[in-house]
Each structure stands twice: as structure tokens, then as C-alpha cells.
Design brief:
mainly alpha; 14 helices
């Protein structure tokens, strides 16, 4: 359903739009978690650690793609909010062609350099070969990942958040079924997990394309439409480059953190991977709410409705706080249950490490209320440089804090480093928001 959020109840718009995003984000986490859970159960902690070691590298590549999609989505939502439907369609075509070329280059580099990338993260030698194989195979699915993300971004820019969710449901089920079949029945280990992933990605890309061509005329493209608009390409690069660099810096920081954790041994790597996946689930709803706010803000920014923008930020802060308070309580009371999903009871040391890490991390969750809300806001108004600077501020703090305390606190050093980084990031974003309000104080409502 196409949804214009420039009129009507703000809270209702944000919640109705964000629920499919939230469910989809959780499903996407499940989509990636299935590989780890099933591989860990069938092939042990070594295979789990191998998938975990390859994960941050793959995430850098994926989030370059997500960055392109995010920048494009902001532009498309602004065009939609301003009623510029022809320009909206031209932007989609420009992003598909230029982003597709870039993704193809990324795929080749990742496949060819998988072994080097794994070694650079100081992955333990006894899992290096498995991690390299997993990364090499998954790299081949990058074009499908890009197509799904760009089609989903286009749909979300016009307020349609349900269809991307339905596609994710199908992809997640496909991934899990193929994981069980290839890993459990055919004993293909990490290779089976990787093949299941790229098969699911291909299905999601195809399904999204078919839906748009059949049901969404304003986004429907013919072969002749697939050309680059030079003016839009510049804007797309400006927006997408900043978003892509931001996501890459974020995951480069995670790789550096992963490298430090890798030096602590397989128990620490397995515990950190299990806890990080759980952590991702907890933060996924906040990411979805921030994405909903981005589309809401972008549409209203295109329609020049400043008062609705500010009101939307206030509503989202309240929603975020309520969710984070609930999530923190859940982790404090059930951390052992979550870590136990990934590791056998006999792995007592790894289980204990994972629980300690996750419990300490929960102490800092409240800071994400500010971080995620204002990331969504600044993306929506096109101030992506502020989101980039915020990331540049918090990532070095996260990495430095981790390495400084690693010898004393073990993997708990990561929690402390992340918490300090979030705190500084929050202060910067609040200060930047006050600056935006001052700069736009004289703007009239559209």
C-alpha cells in the first residue's frame, strides 16, 4: 500500500509503517542467524566461529550496498513527498544501473581476495580454510543482495513497507529449509550454509522485481528506461557515498574489534559471535524504527513541512525509549537462554563468556534511543555528513576502548568500548539537531 506521511496522525504513520520494517529486520537477522545456528549445531563451535569470522567482512560489502540503497531511498522519498513522480522513476533507473556496476566490481574483489581478507582479521588457523570458503561462496550473491535492497528501498520510499517484509518471510523460510537440507542432510558444512544464503537472496531479488513490474506502475521500468541521468547520478553518489562510507566505517570498526577478539581463542570467538547475533536482534527494532523515521522525515522534507518533522522526532524518541527499556529487562533476565541457542551445554566457558558480554552490553542500550533516532532524522533531511561524522566519532572510541581493555576484561572490553562510543555520539547528534533547528527556524510550512 502506497502511504503518504505528509498528512494525518504522526504516531499512527510511524508505527504502521515501522511494524513491517521491524518484523522484516528481525527476519533478516534470522535469515543470517540460521547459518550460524544450524552450522554450530551440526558441525560444532569451529564451524560457528568460521561463519562468525567471515561475517564482519561480508557485512562491509553488504553495507556498502545498503549505503547506496539508503542514499537512493532518501532521494526517492523526497521526490515522492514533493510529487515529482517522473524524477522518482529516473532516480530508480539511475541507481539500478550505476549501483549494479559497482556491485559487480565488489563481487569480483571479494571472491578473489577472500583468503587474504580472512587472514587480515587474524582468524585462527584451524578455522581459516572454512571461513575463506564461506566468504568466497557468499560473495557470489552480492548482485542479488543489491537488487533486493534497491527494489525494497524504492517501495519503502513511497510508503510500501509490507511487500519487502513478505519477500523476506519467503526468503528466510527458503534459507532455513536449504540450510537444514544442505548442512544436515548432505553434510556440506559452511559451503552448504553459503549456498543456501545466495539461493535465498536470488529468490528475494526476483520476487521484488516481479511485484514492482506487476503492481507498482510508478516504479515500473522497461529496458529502455535503464539509463543514467547525469544530474541524478551526482546526487545519488553524494548521498550514497556518504551512506556507504558510514556503513563501511562502522563495519570496519567491527572487523577491528573482531580481530582483537580472535586473539583470545576459539571459545571467545564463538561466545562473541553468539552474543553479537543476539545483540543484533535486540537492536534491530531500533534500526527499523529509525528507517521508518527516515522515510517519514524525507517525505515531509520534500513537502517542506518542518513542524511535522520536529513532531515526528519527538514521537520517535518516546517510542524508542519504551522499546529499549523493555529489551534491557529481557536481556538482564534471559541472557543465558539466548546464548544457549548457539552453544551446547558442555561448552561452559564459551557460554559464560557470552552471558557476561551480553549482560554488560545491555547496560548501554538506553543510549541507542538517541543514536538511532537522530541517525534516522539526519538521513531523512539529507544531512548524511552528520551521520558520517557521528560514526567517525564513535568507531575509533569503540576500537580504542576495546583494545585498551581487552587484556583486562576479555570480550567484555567490547561492551565498554561500544558504550563510551554511543555516549559521545549522542552528545554530538543532540548538538547537531539544535543547530539544524536554528538554521531552519525561518522556513515556512508547505
Amino acid at each position: 500500500m502506497i502511504r503518504s506521511m505528509t498528512e494525518g496522525n504522526i504516531t499512527k504513520h510511524l508505527l504502521l509503517y515501522s511494524v513491517p520494517l521491524l518484523m522484516g529486520n528481525l527476519l533478516q537477522q534470522l535469515y543470517h542467524t540460521a547459518d550460524s545456528v544450524i552450522v554450530g549445531r551440526f558441525n560444532g563451535k569451529e564451524a560457528l566461529a568460521a561463519v562468525g569470522a567471515a561475517g564482519p567482512i561480508m557485512n562491509i560489502l553488504i553495507f556498502f550496498i545498503v549505503g547506496i540503497s539508503l542514499g537512493t531511498s532518501v532521494l526517492m522519498a523526497s521526490f515522492f513527498g514533493g510529487g515529482k513522480l517522473k524524477t522518482l522513476k529516473e532516480e530508480l533507473a539511475t541507481a539500478l544501473v550505476s549501483g549494479g556496476i559497482f556491485t559487480g566490481i565488489l563481487m569480483v574483489l571479494s571472491f578473489a581476495g577472500s583468503g587474504l581478507f580472512i587472514r587480515l582479521t587474524q582468524t585462527p588457523e584451524d578455522i581459516e580454510q572454512m571461513a575463506t570458503l564461506y566468504l568466497a561462496i557468499v560473495s557470489l550473491g552480492l548482485p542479488f543482495t543489491y537488487l533486493y535492497n534497491i527494489f525494497s528501498s524504492a517501495l519503502r520510499s513511497i510508503g510500501e513497507s509490507r511487500v519487502p517484509f513478505y519477500v523476506l518471510v519467503a526468503a528466510t523460510v527458503t534459507n532455513i529449509v536449504l540450510d537444514i537440507l544442505l548442512i544436515g542432510s548432505f553434510h556440506m558444512g559452511v559451503a552448504g550454509a553459503a549456498l543456501a544464503t545466495i539461493s535465498s537472496q536470488a529468490m528475494s531479488a526476483f520476487a521484488s522485481f516481479v511485484y514492482i513490474q506487476a503492481r507498482v506502475p510508478m516504479l515500473r521500468l522497461t529496458f529502455g528506461d535503464l539509463k543514467i541521468n547525469a544530474g541524478l547520478l551526482k546526487d545519488t553518489i553524494d548521498y550514497s557515498l556518504v551512506a556507504g562510507v558510514q556503513q563501511t566505517v562502522l563495519y570496519l570498526g567491527r572487523i577491528l574489534v573482531q580481530s582483537g577478539v580472535n586473539t583470545l581463542g576459539i571459545d571467545a570467538v564463538a561466545a562473541f559471535n553468539a552474543a553479537s547475533i543476539t545483540d543484533n536482534y535486540i537492536l534491530a527494532p531500533g534500526d527499523s524504527l529509525a528507517a521508518a523515521l527516515t522515510t517519514y522525515i524525507a517525505q515531509n522534507n520534500g513537502a517542506k513541512k518542518r513542524a511535522r518533522i520536529i513532531a515526528g522526532v519527538k514521537r520517535m524518541l518516546v517510542i524508542m525509549f519504551c522499546y529499549i527499556a523493555f529489551a534491557t529487562i529481557v536481556i538482564f533476565t534471559h541472557a543465558g537462554v539466548f546464548i544457549g541457542l548457539f552453544l551446547e551445554k558442555a561448552e561452559t566457558n564459551a557460554l559464560e563468556l557470552g552471558v557476561k558480554y551480553l549482560t554488560l552490553m545491555a547496560c548501554f542500550y538506553i543510549l541507542t534511543t538517541i543514536c538511532q533516532t537522530f541517525q534516522g532524522f539526519f538521513r531523512g533531511v539529507g544531512e548524511l555528513k552528520i551521520t558520517l561524522i557521528a560514526t567517525f566519532i564513535q568507531i575509533p572510541i569503540r576500537v580504542a576502548g576495546t583494545y585498551a581493555l581487552l587484556g583486562v576484561l576479555g570480550i567484555q572490553a567490547v561492551s565498554v568500548g561500544v558504550g563510551i562510543g554511543w555516549a559521545v555520539m549522542s552528545v554530538y547528534e543532540l548538538w547537531s539537531y539544535r543547530g539544524w533547528k536554528r538554521r531552519t527556524a525561518g522556513q515556512c510550512e508547505g
